[in-house]
Amino acid sequence: MSQHVVVYEYGIVRRTSEAAESIDSTQNTDVFVSDQTFDLLKQWAFVPHADAVIRFFLQKGKECLRFKNYTGILQTSDGTQFEILPKISKNDTVFTARQSLLKMLRSVTDLPFYRLSQAHLQQANQPLWEIFISAFIQEMEQIIQQGLERAYQTIETEQTFVRGKWLPHRQNALHPELLFTAHDEFNADILPNRLLKTCVLFLGKRSQYLPNQVRLRQLRFALEDVNTSMQVNADFAKLEKLDRRFNRYAQALKWAKVLLNQQSWATAGKDVNDSLLFPTERLFENYVARGAKRYLGDHEVSYQDDLHFLVDDHSGKRRFRLRPDLVIRKDQQTVVMDMKWKRIEPTLPNYGIEQTDLYQLYAYGRKYNADALFLIYPAHEDFRAPLPPFRFEEQLVLTVIPFDITAPLPAEIEKMENYLEMK
After folding, report:
1. Nearest-angstrom CA–CA distance, 240 and 140
2. Are residues 329 and 405 in the same domain?
3. For range 136-148, the mean pLDDT
4. N or C: which end of the chain has fewer CB within 10 A?
5. Are residues 334 and 273 in the same domain?
6. Mean pLDDT of all residues in the chain?
7. Does residue 286 fall inside a structural domain?
8. Contact by Cβ (8 Å): 144, 219
9. DSSP string, 297-356
10. Terminal-to-terminal C-alpha distance of the chain
11. Is beta strand 70-76 parallel, antiparallel or unpaired with respect to 272-279?
12. 165 with 227, same domain?
């Protein structure tokens, strides 16, 4: 049975074999794993792209691994599944952190997460993996209820009578009593259904949550007459040619592609699968931007605006394009906003704000001729109200405001709108 390990952003992974010796330096967010799992992660930590996700270091002579600001699911080839959750508030529980991650994942519109419902958020006492499985099952049950799509398939077989067309050139000389025939059969054994059944069978072996297991068995029975896909990646590539009849399959197939990726990486001989990891700051940006676009109805909202450059002319060309996270316009007024996934510390002299972020906001303000600037950080128990304003110039002021991802999104956007009106 696979091991499920919950760890927070910036949490440390240690060897279980060194637990007793590490007690003086251990924090309550640290996790302990077997030497085999640790060695797989350690080896992966030195792969070029992995340095954005995890860092190897020594602490009092003991090997440690620290996750960075990525969240989601990471799997090692020995069956250990790490669930990495966001961590801003000191009061966060696994339930609230998992809910926050699910809410932010719903802003990723090119993946099936945006269809996660409020009911799925209430399942946050279950591992992320099981919640994803539940979402796939829900899409599948809807397809089964509406009826599987079917198509005519050419069936070639040897039998004692002619059904359809006899193919004498395919006749088996060793068995002249058998006729090689081809006939068309209207059935559900078609490519999309094969991929969905492949996913159902795969998840049936991987789910450890009894309600999911029961529902997967029911789906397996409903797909009894459908074969599995033998070339998953190649078959997914063929899906672009599907006609509109299969539009209702879209979400289930998206889920199947995401979940079956957990199968294909292992057969490719890789030690670690990070395909379900996401940069938390990007998720936070998408979440706030999606809310602004949806609920600031009387404002023009531009995400990742790219109209301006830092340098207007260098050898006849503009250089260094600027990309503020949000530009909000209304009544000839322009407000520029940037989001940062970091804990603000009101007791520190500079609150933990990076000086480079202030340089960046100043450049945005000048180039966009902004009427106001905002830096948005996640709210927590010590950061519930805006910080005192940062005045760059008489007419250029930056306000640092909190955004509570545990609160309903419309309510937080309403607060943001109030800040805009107060500028």
Report:
1. 20
2. yes
3. 96
4. N
5. no
6. 89
7. no
8. yes
9. TTSEEEET----EEEEEETTEEEEE---SEEEEETTEEEEEEE--S---TTSTTTT--HH
10. 56
11. antiparallel
12. no
Annotate 288-327 with b (16+ C-beta within 10 A) or e (fewer): bbbbbbebbeebebbbebeebeeeeeeeeeeeeebebbbb
If asked whether residues 237 and 310 sit together in one domain, one would say no
Q: What is the pLDDT of residues 357-402, one digit of tens each?
A: 999 999 999 999 999 999 999 999 999 999 999 999 888 999 999 9
Q: What is the largest CA-CA distance in the chain?
A: 97
Inter-residue contact 313 to 325 (CB < 8 Å): no
Helices (H), 160-249: 191-206, 210-222, 232-237
Partners of residue 56 on adjacent β-strands: 65
Please check whether residue 271 is in contact with residue 215, taking contact to mean a CB–CB distance below 8 angstroms.
no
Q: Which range marks the domain in which residue 300 is found?
A: 296-422
- How far lies 395's CA from each of 361, 369, 387, in Å? 14, 10, 18
Strands (E), 26-139: 31-33, 54-59, 62-67, 70-76, 81-85
Pairing relationship of beta strands 151-159 and 179-187 according to DSSP bridges: antiparallel
Confidence of residue 421 (pLDDT cuts 50, 70, 90): confident
CB 151 within 8 A of CB 169: no
Q: How far is CA 250 from the centre of its chain?
A: 18
Cα distances (angstroms) measured from residue 165 to each of 157, 162, 185: 11, 7, 13
CB-CB contact of 246 with 192 (8 Å)? yes
How much is the average pLDDT of 14-21?
Answer: 83
Contact 320, 377 (CB under 8 A): no
Statement: residue 166 has pLDDT above 60? no
Mean pLDDT of 95-115: 93
